[in-house]
Write a structure and sequence with these properties.
With 434 residues, the protein is α/β, with parallel strands linked by helices. The protein has two domains: 50-117 and 297-433, Rossmann fold (3-Layer(aba) Sandwich), CATH 3.40.50; 119-292, Dimethylsulfoxide Reductase, domain 2, CATH 3.40.228.10. 35% of the residues lie in helices and 20% in strands. It contains 16 helices and 19 strands. It has helices at 35-42, 66-79, 93-105, 119-128, 135-141, 152-155, 159-163, 208-218, 235-247, 257-260, 265-282, 299-310, 330-335, 349-352, 355-362, 420-433; strands spanning 2-6, 18-22, 27-31, 54-57, 60-63, 83-87, 109-112, 144-148, 179-183, 199-201, 250-255, 287-292, 316-319, 322-324, 341-345, 366-370, 382-385, 395-398, 404-407. The strands form four sheets. Strands 5-4-17-16-15-6-7-13-14 form a nine-stranded mixed beta sheet. A five-stranded parallel beta sheet has the order 10-9-8-11-12. It has a three-stranded antiparallel beta sheet with strand order 1-2-3, with no helix packed on it. Helix 2 (66-79) packs across helix 16 (420-433) and helix 4 (119-128) packs across helix 11 (265-282). The relative contact order is 0.20. The structure holds iron/sulfur cluster (SF4). Iron/sulfur cluster (SF4) is lined by residues 8, 10-11, 13-15, 18, 33-34, 36-37, 156-158.
Length: 434
């Protein structure tokens, strides 16, 4: 048995300090991962693990060989004139690249889960600009951490350990000089770490934008805050918030799902990024940055691969093997029935999308590539099981702060199943051969 330091792919924090005890065939113990991370390693032998290829015959999913599953998938794609490719947030960047190449070959539309999550922040930043930071900066230099619509204690469990409780490299101080502010309509588990100096702001649901607008107006001039407060937050708390925003040396706003999932999200995100830029222009001595809290471990990777390859990070539509302009999104494509089959990679859209869209997606052939059972499997016409990246195969992934990390293989995958990248390459080669 040897102890091996590895990177956990349980969430987008990609903790690279997890130790696994292994004999090269099995993983015996895991040290340092949170429960969510441990669950990822437990998936290897879990009942939920997908290890067998399936194809649908006479309405029933039946076990098959990998070759037959790939053959059926190729047959479906060959008959398709409007294929849709979706997911790609829980696979390596090499697999993301293969997915985009496949979409180009078959004149498909490809998008990642990021379009309905943190990609909205990146898209808004094209208008406003964005000041990003890294986890190392947060550990070593941050003195103000604002969690806006983000319940990190549950979604990214070790983030608070790292950025709030750790000691910085340049200061012999840690938690005692860090103030946290949580802005959320509900009292989440993250409120549990708050101390006397911290500020808990229960904003009224859907009224973040009024709060941001008030902060933009009053930025650096707290005297004219309305006596009634804003968005359910009273005047004194608003003053405290403003003082923190304008006096921080190194402040970070962590943007969570509570904002990106709100009904008026594009306006809210744009105004929040404008507020950050305003603070930075007026700040004499400090800096305010943002960090996007995507959930899946390589959600950021798709943006980097697509941007570097095509100069566009979302909603990639190919025609005549070229990228063309489109106003479509994955939502409009499904909603308008503008597709005739889908290739879903490492995702469970049947569970995650609203029922109306799930029903439309399920009405056309689905090719699923994944390593765990999901609701999407129940509607798939072909399922090809894949190895777990970071455990059974390697690859590159981008952490939530856009830092690339190499994921290493620890053990061989069971049943000689392929990585996502290999499966997509086999589809690509099979289709190219015709
Ligand atoms: S915080 Fe995320 S990456 Fe870190 S151990 Fe937990 S699940 Fe894994």
């Amino acid at each position: 048995m040897v102890d091996k330091r590895t990177t956990c792919t349980g969430c987008s924090l990609l903790c690279d300090d997890v130790i696994v005890r292994t004999d090269g065939l099995y993983i015996d113990e895991i040290f340092g991962a949170c429960l969510k991370g441990k669950e990822k390693y437990d998936l290897i032998t879990s009942k939920n693990r997908l290890l067998t290829p399936f194809i649908r015959e006479d309405g029933e999913l039946v076990k098959t060989s990998i070759d037959k599953a790939l053959e059926k998938a190729i047959g479906i794609i060959e008959k398709s004139s409007k294929p849709l490719l979706y997911g790609f947030s829980t696979v390596s960047s090499q697999a993301q690249l293969k997915g985009i190449e496949l979409a180009k070959l078959i004149n498909g539309f490809i998008d990642s889960n990021s379009i309905i999550c943190q990609g909205k922040v990146l898209n808004a930043s094209k208008q406003t600009g964005i000041t990003l930071t890294t986890i190392s900066e947060a550990i070593n230099k941050a003195d103000l951490l604002i969690f806006w619509g983000a319940n990190v204690a549950e979604s990214i469990p070790r983030l608070l350990n790292k950025v709030l409780f750790s000691r910085g490299k340049f200061r012999m101080t840690g938690r005692e000089i860090k103030t946290i502010i949580i802005i959320d309509p509900v009292k989440t588990a993250s409120f549990g770490v708050m101390g006397v100096r911290d500020i808990a702001l229960k904003v009224e649901p859907g009224r973040d934008i009024e709060l941001i607008r008030a902060l933009k107006e009053e930025c650096c001039t707290p005297d004219s805050i309305p006596s009634t407060g804003v968005s359910g937050i009273d005047r004194d708390d608003l003053k405290r918030l403003l003082i923190q925003l304008t006096n921080t040396e190194n402040g970070i706003i962590f943007i969570g799902q509570g904002i990106v999932g709100s009904s008026n999200n594009s306006e809210v995100i744009q105004e929040l990024l404008e507020l950050v830029q305003m603070i930075n222009i007026r700040q004499q001595k400090g800096r305010m940055s943002v960090m996007m809290l995507g959930g899946h471990y390589n959600m950021v990777g798709f943006e980097h691969v697509a941007l570097s390859l095509l100069g566009k990070n979302h909603s990639l539509q190919f025609s005549d093997n070229k990228l063309i302009e489109t106003s479509n999104t994955i939502i409009s494509k499904i909603n308008n029935d503008d597709f005739d089959c889908s290739i879903i990679v490492g995702s469970d859209p049947i569970s995650h999308l609203p029922w109306k869209l799930s029903k439309k997606l399920a009405s056309k052939p689905i090719i699923l590539i994944d390593n765990k059972k999901s609701a999407t499997l129940n509607f798939a016409d072909v399922c090809v099981p894949s190895a777990i990246t970071g455990i059974e195969c390697g690859g590159l992934a981008y952490r939530l702060d856009h830092v690339p990390l190499e994921l290493e293989k620890i053990i061989n995958p069971p049943n000689n199943i392929f990585s996502d990248e290999e499966i997509l390459s086999k589809l690509y080669e099979g289709l190219k051969r015709g």
